C-alpha cells in the first residue's frame, strides 16, 4: 500500500502544512510519495526529498502548472491515482480547492479536515464548528482526505534522501485560465503553523489602524497576524488573514485576540490554542468565555502599552 501527498508551495519554499501531511501519512504505515507541480521547482523537490519518511518525489515541472490552477492540476493527480491507496493534502485553501475535484473525477468519497487517523479506513474529523468530533469510515478503493495541519507535527529533515522522479504533464484544460493574482508578501510566520498569533477584529476600525496597532506587537513576538471574518468582510484585513471555520484553523502556543467578539465560527478556528489572551472593551464579549486571560480595556491604549513593555 502506498500514499501520495500533494505538495503545496509558493515557488520558493514548501508550505509547512505539507510537512504535516507527511506525518499524517506515516500513521498509515505505507510508502510515501510526494507530488510537486509547478515551473522551475527543482529547489522545492530537493527540500521534500530530505524530509524523513518520503520514499519518492514525483516532479511535474511544466509551465502549465506555474500558477497551479486546480483545473489543470487535478487531471495530473488522477493520471497516477491508480498507483496509490490514499491521496492526502492539507486542508488549506489550496487543498480545499483541489482535492474535491480529484475525488469527483475518480468518483470516490473524500473526508475533509481529518484530525486523527485510527486506521487506513477510519478517521476523526470535527463537526458542528468543532464542538463535536465524528469518527468516520471510508471504504473507497482510493482514500482521499485533507488533514488539519495543526493536528500533526511537521515532518523534519534528516538523513533521508528520497529519489526524485520527473512526471509528464497532462493535457491542459480550457475550462479555466489564470489572469492575475495579488499576493501579500510577508516575512512573518505562516498563519496555520505559527507558534504565536496576534489577531484583530472589526472594532479596530480601519485597515490603517489594524496594521498600526497589531504589526508592532506581532513583530516583537515574531507572530503571525490573523483577523476575524467580520474584519475581513469590512475590508480592514486581507482575506489570507482570516482565522476561523471559514478561514485558517490555528493552534498556536499563544493566541492574542484584540477586539475579537468571539463568534462561533471564529472560536472553531482557535479553540485548540494552548493559551488564549483576549483584550476587549466590552466585558460581555463571548471571547472571554474561552480566554485563559482576559483584559477589559481600551484596545489602542492596552495593546500599545503591551508592545512597549516588551522592550524591557
General description of the model:
The chain is α/β, with parallel strands linked by helices. It has eight helices and 15 strands. The protein has helices spanning 16-28, 42-49, 70-80, 93-106, 207-221, 229-233, 264-267, 299-309; strands at residues 2-6, 31-38, 54-61, 86-90, 110-114, 116-119, 122-127, 132-137, 143-147, 163-166, 196-200, 224-227, 254-258, 275-280, 293-296. The strands form three sheets. It has a seven-stranded parallel β-sheet, sandwiched between helices. A five-stranded parallel β-sheet has the order 12-11-13-14-15. The chain has a three-stranded antiparallel β-sheet with strand order 6-7-8. Helix 3 (70-80) crosses helix 4. The chain is globular, with a radius of gyration of 20 Å. The relative contact order is 0.12.
The stretches of 5 or more residues where confidence is low (pLDDT under 50) are none
Mean pLDDT, nearest integer? 92
Give the SSE string: EHEHEHEHEEEEEEEHEHEHEEH
Number of helices: 8
Number of DSSP-assigned strands: 15
What is the rounded distance between the termini?
55 Å
Give the structural class.
alpha/beta
Main sheet specs: 7 strands, parallel
Residues in helix, %: 25-40%
Strand content: 25-35%
Q: Which features characterize this protein?
A:
26% strand; five-stranded parallel beta sheet; alpha/beta; seven-stranded parallel beta sheet; 8 helices; 312 residues; single chain
